[in-house]
Amino acid sequence: MTGKNKGICHSCRRPGHYLSACPKKQQCPVCGNGFVKWMEVEKKFANIGRLFFCCSSNCGYFKWSDENLNGAYDVGESSGVSAGSPTAKDEIEELSRIFKYLLRLLNDKM
């Protein structure tokens, strides 16, 4: 059985593209390093089929989508990402943020 999160964008939940190319992707409001993913619970628990938001960098950000009328962000929060295709500069800046985050994690473990 194919999962309900397979073959669709994890940002807007539409087919035809993936999170990395989604024009509507938003940065995580907690860490700013990852992007907000919009996923569906697939495991057979009480919340099966329920939609939630989490971070692509696994920073711990989590919100149920049906409990937040503003989507992934609370009032006053912003993604800092504008709609449109990412440019090479955007991609380089994203890689820089990822490397800084990984370096911080490495230093915290030492």
TrEMBL record:
Domain GRF-type: residue ranges: 28-68
Domain of life: Eukaryota
Pfam families linked: Zn_ribbon_GRF
UniProt keyword annotations, A-Z: DNA-directed RNA polymerase, Metal-binding, Transcription, Zinc, Zinc-finger
Ranges annotated as spanning the membrane: none
GO molecular function, one term: zinc ion binding
One GO term describing the cellular component: DNA-directed RNA polymerase complex
Protein name per UniProt: DNA-directed RNA polymerase 1B
Source species of the chain: Abeliophyllum distichum
